[in-house]
Design a protein that fits this description.
This protein is of the alpha+beta class. 19% of the residues lie in helices and 36% in strands. The protein starts with 8 loop residues before the first strand and ends in a 6-residue tail after the last strand.
Length: 202
C-alpha cells in the first residue's frame, strides 16, 4: 500500500556506494505553500550535492562514493523530479582505510518537540580507522560530523525551504488526516558510540 501524498514536500535521496555496496541517505524538505515544481526539485538536488562536496567529502573515507542524487515531489502521483549526477561518482577525501559497511555513526535530528515522531536520524557512513578507537568515534570527528549535519539544515533554509521530519504513522497506524511535518531545528550526537548497520555486510 503506497504512503499518502505529502503536499509541499520533496524527498531527496543520496545514492552512494560504501566499499562497493549500494547505500542511501534520505532527507525531506518543505518548499512552501504550493506543490513542488521541477525547478524546486532541481534546486534541492543541487544544494545536496554542494553540501556533500563541501561538508561530507572532507570527513569520509575514499571507500564511500556519492553516485547520484534524486529529488522527488511527494505532493502528487507522477509528480516532478530531478536527478543530479554531473561530475559523479565522487569519493570521500580521507585516504585512511574506510571501516566496514556495518559501522556508522548516528546523528539525532531534533525538532524541539517531544515524541518519537518528532525526531529523526541520520546514519553517517564512511568512517575511517583513524576516526574510531574501539567502539568510540573520536571527539574531533564527532564535532565535525555534527557541524556538517547542522550545515545541511542551514543549506536547506538557504534555498528558502524547511528541513523536516515527515510522520506518516501514529499509534501503530497511518494518521487519518495525512502526514504531519516537524521542522528540524538541531542536529546532535547523543553519544560517541558507533552504530551497527548489519545489513550493509552483504
Amino acid at each position: 500500500m503506497p504512503l499518502p501524498l505529502a503536499p509541499t514536500v520533496i524527498k531527496c535521496s543520496m545514492f552512494q556506494t560504501l566499499n562497493g555496496q549500494p547505500i542511501m541517505n534520505r532527507f525531506h524538505v518543505k518548499v512552501g505553500a504550493t506543490n513542488p515544481s521541477q525547478a524546486e526539485c532541481a534546486a534541492v538536488a543541487a544544494m545536496a550535492e554542494a553540501w556533500w562536496q563541501g561538508s561530507v567529502k572532507p570527513l569520509v573515507g575514499a571507500g564511500l562514493e556519492l553516485r547520484e542524487i534524486h529529488a522527488q515531489s511527494l505532493a502528487e502521483v507522477n509528480g516532478p523530479q530531478a536527478t543530479f549526477s554531473a561530475g559523479l561518482p565522487e569519493p570521500g577525501a580521507l585516504l585512511d582505510a574506510t571501516l566496514p559497511g556495518n559501522v556508522a555513526f548516528c546523528v539525532s535530528l531534533r525538532s524541539g518537540l517531544s515524541g518519537r515522531s518528532a525526531r529523526g536520524r541520520w546514519y553517517w557512513a564512511g568512517l575511517t580507522e583513524t576516526q574510531v578507537t574501539g567502539n568510540l568515534v573520536g571527539a574531533g570527528a564527532v564535532a565535525s560530523i555534527v557541524s556538517a549535519m547542522d550545515g545541511l539544515l542551514t543549506a536547506v533554509t538557504g534555498i528558502g525551504a524547511d528541513p523536516i521530519i515527515v510522520s506518516y504513522y501514529s499509534g501503530g497506524g497511518l494518521r487519518p488526516g495525512g502526514p504531519v511535518y516537524f521542522i528540524i531545528t538541531d542536529a546532535i550526537a547523543v553519544d560517541s558510540v558507533v552504530d551497527s548497520q548489519r545489513g550493509r555486510l552483504k
